[in-house]
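batch job 7 of whatever, protein = 5328_t:CDS:1
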Amino acid sequence: MSRARTSDEIWLARNLDKLDELLHNYPKLPKKPLAESSVYIIGMASPEHEDVINQLIKFFEVPNGGIVGNLPVKVSGQPLHYEPGGSGVEVAPDVSVRPSTTFVPRPADSIVIPRPPSDIHILFPRPGVREPGTGYFFRSMTAKLYRQGMETQRWDFGNVLKYSRDPIANINDPNLCNTPNDPRFQINIPIKEVFWDPQFPIPLNYVPLIPTNLIGNEFNIDLYWIQRIALEAAMQTAMIT
């Protein structure tokens, strides 16, 4: 038989629960019953779903001819945006295909509300200061690479550094990430790490078996192109807010 808890024990338990919620921010449903229209179902995508979407994206990217930057056809997975019909409903399709604004500029006037492009504002540019020429807002960006058993690598690759004194004059700042193929802003990850699958204990001089039809020895990520995509997206969302 369990004994009744004292008021001090009840008070302590309640406050520990509040502290646990504050630290961990668990998702939870309201205590009261929900109407059918109020229920949101949150689920993680299955491997099958993500593999199919990834393959669809590859099909849509074929016309780009394998180029990395300034893509004529832009393909995204699950971008949150307003339904194109102008209903104001937010949707997140599995795949979104759209032209680059270099080839199809934003319309000066539109009867569709919200005006296209209708991306939801998910980026937060530094207001009031923009790149000369492009009109992109200045943003500080950081990339981190985590690998098991290795030291974390970090790159600051925005078009303005954090705590910059003057984004335009670049006073007392080192050179920024402002051109492709800059060796300081390349992330190179050995492809062999994908195929790392040794027996246990790991045999001496173990070498992963890499398929012979792969091209190259490393994944190469140019952070300049990541920066340009983020800056363009920030400008577009700012234009419609």
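notes: Residues 142-240 form one domain.
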